[in-house]
# Entry
Amino acid sequence: MPKPLSEVSLSEDEMILEGFEATLGGTQVLVTAVLERTCVYVDPAGERKLASKQDLLVDPEKLTIRRRRPGS
# Structure
């Protein structure tokens, strides 16, 4: 079930890998970078834009989560 990206819980040493689809205002977008509170996404016209994690709906089961390397 989709939920805001801001509600996806991660351990302190985990990170979400970019390159996943999300829904923003009813439109499917491709997330290309995950920052602390925002994400960079590509809209249907091919433009890169910023969105708050709370506005991006994702299916947590489809996200790729990886552990950070020590010292990163």
